[in-house]
Amino acid sequence: MPRGRKTRGKAGYMISAVAEMYQIHPQTLRLYEREGLLIPSRSNGNTRLYGPEDLEQLEMILKLTRDLGVNISGVAIILNMRKQMEEMQKEMRAFVEFVQGEVLHHPQEDQSKFRTALVRIPPPVLIRTKKNEPR
């Protein structure tokens, strides 16, 4: 089985249905798969099955190629950068949660650390922001 191929028991759209929905040729979908931009799951009979995540990825690819004129190499770079940014955001959220847990849940212990430091540092002030606030 080729590297990176997804297999799952969930239902999905076949290549002909996806091609018709997005008004593209099935060969274009095969090209995106060959280039590693889109990796649909496979049925037991090796039929490509496109799930919701695949369709979302395809929409991003089509937006980049159709609307912005980005070539396939550029799409690959952009998608890779998006993936890396999402991973970094997850890491940053985990780090912020850790720091908040350490500082907010142990305020007395943290105060003593600041008093015995070689250089006096005032206690940190955390500013809470509202989650899900429209930008």
Walkthrough of the structure:
With 135 residues, the protein is mainly alpha-helical. The chain has 2 domains: 1-70, Multidrug-efflux Transporter Regulator, Chain: A, Domain 2; 86-128, no CATH class. The protein contains 5 helices and 3 strands. The chain has helices spanning 15-21, 26-34, 52-67, 72-105, 107-115; strands spanning 6-7, 41-42, 48-49. Strands 1-2-3 form a 3-stranded mixed beta sheet, with no helix packed on it. Strand 2 (41-42) and strand 3 (48-49) form a beta hairpin. The mean pLDDT is 84.
SSE order and pairing:
Blueprint: E1 6-7, H1 15-21, H2 26-34, E2 41-42, E3 48-49, H3 52-67, H4 72-105, H5 107-115
Parallel strand pairs: 1-2
Antiparallel strand pairs: 2-3
Biggest pleated-sheet summary: 3 strands, mixed
The Cα radius of gyration reads 23 Å
Helical content stands at: 55-70%
Distance between the termini: 44 Å
Q: Give the amount of beta strand, in percent.
A: under 5%
Number of beta strands: 3
Number of domains as seen in the coordinates? 2
Mean pLDDT: 84
* Helix segment tally: 5
What strand order characterises the main sheet?
1-2-3
User: Would you identify the regions where 5 or more consecutive residues have pLDDT less than 50?
Assistant: none
CATH overall fold name of the largest domain: Multidrug-efflux Transporter Regulator, Chain: A, Domain 2
Shape: elongated
Name of the level-1 CATH class of the largest domain: Mainly Alpha
CATH architecture of the largest domain, please?
Orthogonal Bundle
Properties at a glance:
4% strand; 56% helix; 5 helices
